[in-house]
Amino acid sequence: MTTKAYIKDYPRPQFVRKDWTNLNGEWSFRFDDHNAGEQDNWQEKFTETHKINVPFTYETKMSGIGAEEFHPNVWYSRQVHIPKEAEGQRVILHFQAVDHVAKVWVNGKMAGSHQGGYAAFSFDVTPYLVFGSDNQITVKAEDSDSCTQPRGKQRWTKDNFECFYVQTTGIWQTVWLEYVEEQRLESVKITPDIDRNIVRFDYEVNGVPAAGDLKLEAIVTLKDKPVKRVSLVIDRPCLTVEVDLIHEANGPWKKSLWSPQHPNLYDVEFVLTLNDQVVDRVFSYFGMRKISIEKGKVLLNNVPIYQRLILDQGYWTDSHLTPPSEEALIEDIDRMLEMGYNGVRKHMKIEDARFLYWCDVKGLLVWSEMAATFEFHDRAVEAFTKEWVEIVQQQYNHPSIITWIPFNESWGIASILRDPRQQKFTEGIYHLTKSIDPYRPVITNDGWEHTVSDILTLHDYVETGDGFMKRYSNLEAVLSCETTCNQWKYAFAEGYAYRGQPIIISEYGGIAFQSDKGWGYGHQVSSEEEFMARFEGLTKAIKSVDAIVGYCYTQLTDVQQEINGLLYEDRSPKLPLDKIKKINMA
Fold first, then answer.
1. What PANTHER family does UniProt report for this protein, alphabetically (predicted)?
2. Measured distance CA(389)–CA(391) in Å, rounded
3. Of 27, 557, 23, which is closest to residue 314 (Cα–Cα)?
4. Average pLDDT along the chain
C-alpha cells in the first residue's frame, strides 16, 4: 500500500526526486541567551557546547539534551560534503519546519531566512558551496514567548498549564539536500474534478530558457496500468493543462475514485526535457475525489458521508511534536482506523508531510488546523496570514485533507463575539483560503462564535448522553443563539446567523480515568465499565440527532498533563479497541 515512487523517510512524498541527502543526525549546538552569536560571528566561527540529534528539539529526550527551560536563541552547525560530480547542478537546502525564525549560513555566507514554525522552506545554496569538499551549514533559530506568533499548544510561561505544553524551539522536522538542474519543475498544483473526469495540473517551471526546446510530459498510471500521457512545450514559467482521465485501467470510472473505503491513488511522473535530454524527473500522485456541501450534508464524491473523527495533537513522550519515526506515524493512523474512526482532526499542529501521505494511502480523512496565536494584534494578523497561505499551498495536493480550520475556539480572536475587526479578520482569512482552494470547506472558528463558515462546528463537553439530549433537544434555540451551544458560548458571533450549514460536534468526551497527575473533562471515571458507559451514551446521543452529520472525540492519546486519551502517551490502549470500534460503527 504505497505509491509507485515511495521512499521510506523521504520528507516530501508528494514531490519526489531520487537524488537527495538526509541531513538528520548529530549536529553541533549551543544556546545564545544573550543573542550575541551574530555579533560575535558564530556563523563563521562556531564553537559547540552540546551535541544535538536533529530533528529533535533541545527540549526533548531524543535530542540528547532534554532541557525544558525556554531559550530564545539556539544555534546549529555541521559539515556536509558536497561531491565534485555535483558541480554544474543546483543544490537546494530544505527545512521541513523550524520554530520560529530561521537564519541560515553556508560557509559563513547568509543563504536566507524564514519566519514561521510550521511551514516548510528551502534555499538554493549553490553560490556558497565548494564542490568536492566539506561545507559548513550554520543555522540560528530565534523563538519567543510572544502570543502574537502562531504557537498552537506551546506554552508561553515557565510551566505547563491547562492544555498548553512544553514549547518547541528550533529545528523539529527533517533537514535535507537535493541536487537539481537549472531547468526544473518548481511545483505542481493538482486539482481533481470528478464531475468532468479530468485532473488539472498547474505547473511552475524554473529556468525557462530564451531559446531551446523545453518540454514537460506527465505520465499517469493507476496500479501500474497506463492511463494517460500528455506533454506540452514550456515557453513561460507558469502553465496549466487539463488531462482527461476516462480510461479502462481499473474498470468502471467510479472504482477509481478516492475514499476511505477505496483510497485509490493515481501515480504521476513528470519528465522535463531540454533539447530531448532529461533535465528533471519528479514523481507524485493524486486522488480523484470531491468534497462538497448540499442541504446540510457534507458530500464525498457526491454522496453524503458521516464523519467519525478523533482529535489528535501529535505529541510523543520523548520527542514532543516531532514524530520519533515514520513507523510511529503509521501506527497512529492504524490505531485510529482500528477504533472505527474514518477521519482525524489534527489539532493546533501542522503535521509532518509523511503523516498526510499515509492518510492518503490508507484512506483517513483529515481536518487540517492552524496553530493559533493568542493575542489580536497587527503583528499577529501579519504572521498568521503569511504562514497560513504557505501551509494551504503546501498541503493542497493531499486528497485526505477535506477541511481547513484556520481558527479554533476564538484563540487569538478573543473578542470576536462583538469586535468587528476580529470578525473581519476571520472573514478575510476565509476568503483568502477560498481564493487558493475553492474546493474544500473552511471552518472559520471551530467550536463556537462562528462568522462566515462552511460547516457549523460545536464543542461541548457535557458528561452524559442525557445531558447532551437535554441541551440539543431544541437545536433551533442553539442555532438561533437563544441559548448557548455549551454552558457559556454562542454558536455565532453577533451579526452572523445560521445559513443551513452542516452541523458537526467537533469536540466532545475527553473522558479521563482517575489520577492525581493530570486532568480530563468532567468527573474522572474509576473503571472500564464506567468509561465505556459514558463514551457510548455520549456517542449514541450525538448520532441520534438527525441534523448532526459527524463528531470528533477528544482525543487519541494523553499529552503531558492532559490525560483524556483513548491511548496512553506511549500509545498503549487504555481500553479494548474493538469495543470503541463497535460503538463508533453502530
1. BETA-GALACTOSIDASE, HYDROLASE
2. 5
3. 557
4. 96
Angle between the 528-544 and 465-472 helix axes, to the nearest 10 degrees?
Answer: 20
SS3 of residue 339 by DSSP: coil
pLDDT tens track for 296-347? 999 999 999 999 999 999 999 999 999 999 999 999 999 999 999 999 999 9
Indicate where the chain has its CATH 3.20.20.80 domain(s): 302-585
Report DSSP letters for 112-142, one per residue: EEEE-SSS-EEEE-GGG--TTEEEEEEEEEE
Cα–chain-centroid distance for residue 382?
20
Q: Is 107 exposed, middle or buried (0-12, 13-18, 19+ CB in 10 A)?
A: middle
Model confidence pTM above 0.85: yes
Longest Cα–Cα distance in the chain: 75
H or E element: which one contains 433? helix 420-436
Q: From residue 277, how far is each of 205, 207, 272 by CA, in Å?
A: 16, 15, 8
Where in the chain do CATH 2.60.120.260 domains reside?
A: 24-173
Instruction: Classify residue 492 by its DSSP letter.
Output: B
SS (HEC) of 134-200: EEEEEEEEECCCCCCCCCCCECCCCCCECCEECCCCEECCCEEEEEECCCEEEEEEEEEECCCCEEE
Cell of residue 354, nine digits:
509523511
CATH 3.20.20.80 for the 302-585 domain, yes or no: yes
Summarize pLDDT for 56-77 with one digit per residue, the tens.
Answer: 999 999 999 999 999 999 999 9
Please report which helix (H) or strand (E) contains residue 203, including its range: strand 198-206
- Mean pLDDT of the region 453-479: 96
Handedness of CA 413, 441, 348, 390 (dihedral sign): negative
Residue 159: pLDDT band (50, 70, 90) is very high
Over the Cα atoms of the chain, what is R_g? 24
Q: What is the amino acid identity at position 400?
A: S
Name the pLDDT band for 249 (thresholds 50, 70, 90): low
**Strand boundaries in 275-353, DSSP class E:** 277-286, 291-294, 297-300, 303-304, 307-312, 343-346
Q: Which three cell numbers stand for residue 576?
A: 479494548
Q: Give me the count of residues in the chain.
A: 586
Q: 184-286 sits in which CATH class? A: mainly beta
Q: What is the DSSP letter of 445?
A: S
What mean pLDDT comes out for the span 475-501?
94
Q: Which fold has domain 24-173?
A: Jelly Rolls (2.60.120)
Q: Is 255 helix (H, G, I), strand (E, B) or coil?
A: helix
- Residue 255 C-alpha cell reads as 472504482
Which residues make up the CATH 2.60.40.10 domain(s) of the chain? Answer: 184-286
